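Problem: given the chain below (96 residues), write out its structure.
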Amino acid sequence: MRLDKFLKVSRLIKRRTLAKDVCDQGRVTINGNAAKASSTVSINDHITIRFGTKWVTVEVDQIMETSRKDQATSMYTIIKEERASKPDDFPDDDEE
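Solution.
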């Protein structure tokens, strides 16, 4: 499944166009590598998303083409959430 669609279906990001924009801005990584909106997401991938000064890392548990609101959170497990003092302080995956 495409990354932008996964972010939308899992409700990590509200709209697919917004998910595409976030990916194009370089604010999303898959397994530590910069990811484009068209990148393929697989089960057990680790996705890190930067929201301003907050970073969320999730592990993909399942992939569904569509989901209801109550099913969306079963698509991923939150591995960690971090805050930084500045938006540019993006965490390194080596720090785990």
